[in-house]
C-alpha cells in the first residue's frame, strides 16, 4: 500500500513538473527577448528531428543517413505551394508531409530490402541524388533555391508556437507508438527480426509504417525551419548535416529513450550556438564530445541515468516491456498446456 502511494506520488510530481514546463514554454515569447525565443524554437525543431531519428534507429533498428531528404522536401513544398499557388502556410506544411510520405512509400520497396550498413548507405545516396535533381531543376530555382515570400514579416512567436506544438506532438506520438502493438513489433524487429517474424510480426509493413510517420513529421520540421530562414536552397536543405545533428542529439541524450532526444537537442543547440564562432572546426569539436560520451556513457546521458537510478522521466518502454513480457508469459503457458 505504501509502495502504491509512493508510485502515485511520483506520477503526480512528474505530471506537475510537465505542466509547469509546458506553461513556461507557452508564455515564453511574452516574457523573453527574441534571441531566447529563437533559441528555444530551434530546440523544439531539433527535439522533433531527434525523436523521429530515434524512432527509426532506436526502436526499429533502421539507421538512416538520409533523413535530410524529407527536410528538403518539406522546405521546397512550402516554398512552391506558397509562392506559385498562394496555398496557406499550414496547408503547405501538411502537403509537404504527405509528399514525403508518398516518397517514403515508393522508396521503401527498395530500401527496406536492405539491412544495417546497406540500408544506411542507400538512404544517404538517395538524399544526395536529390541535391543533384533540385540543383538542376529550374522550377525549383536551381542551385540558388527559392525565397518563401509568404513568411516574410511573420512574427517569430508564430513560428515558435508551430515548432513547440510539433515537438510536443512528436513526443506524444513516440510514447503512444511504444505503448501500442506497432511499437512492440518495432522493438521485436530491432532485437531479432527472425524471431519477430516467427511470432507473427509483419516486418515490411511495420517498418513501412515507421518510415511513413518519421518522414511526415520530419518534413514538417523542415518546413518550419525554412519558414524561419525564409530561403530554401538544395545544398543546405538536402545536406547530411541534418542527419548528423539528429544522430548527435540521440547519441548524446540516449538512444532508445523518449527523454534522451529532448536533452540531446538542448545540448546540441546550445553547443552549436557557442561553437559557431569557431567555424568549420565546430563539427570536429562536436564529434569529439560525442566520442567522449560514447566511451563513458554508451547509452547516452539519460540512458545511463535510467540504468543507474532505475527511473524514467517519460515512461514508455517500461509499459511496453511489461506488455511484451505478458504476451510472452501467456504464449508460454498456452504452449505448455498444449
Give structural notes:
This protein has 338 residues and is mostly helical. It has a domain at 35-244. The chain contains 15 helices and two strands. The protein has helices at residues 2-31, 34-59, 68-85, 89-111, 116-135, 156-178, 181-191, 193-198, 203-229, 234-237, 241-253, 260-275, 281-296, 300-309, 317-337; strands at residues 146-147, 231-232. It has a two-stranded antiparallel ribbon. α3 crosses α9 and α11 runs parallel beside α14. It is globular. The model is unreliable at 318-338 (pLDDT under 50).
State the helix count: 15
Residue runs with pLDDT of under 50 for 5 or more positions: 318-338
Helix content: over 70%
Strand content: under 5%
Shape estimate: globular
Query: What can be said about the biggest beta sheet?
Result: 2 strands, antiparallel
User: What is the rounded Rg?
Assistant: 21 Å
Question: How far from one another are the termini?
Answer: 38 Å
Mean pLDDT: 89
What is the N-to-C order of secondary-structure elements (H for helix, E for strand)?
HHHHHEHHHHEHHHHHH
User: What structural class do the secondary elements suggest?
Assistant: mainly alpha
The strand order across the widest sheet is 1-2
Q: Based on DSSP secondary structure assignment, what is the total number of beta strands?
A: 2
List strands and helices in order, with pairings:
Blueprint lengths: L1 H30 L2 H26 L8 H18 L3 H23 L4 H20 L10 E2 L8 H23 L2 H11 L1 H6 L4 H27 L1 E2 L1 H4 L3 H13 L6 H16 L5 H16 L3 H10 L7 H21 L1
Antiparallel strand pairs: 1-2
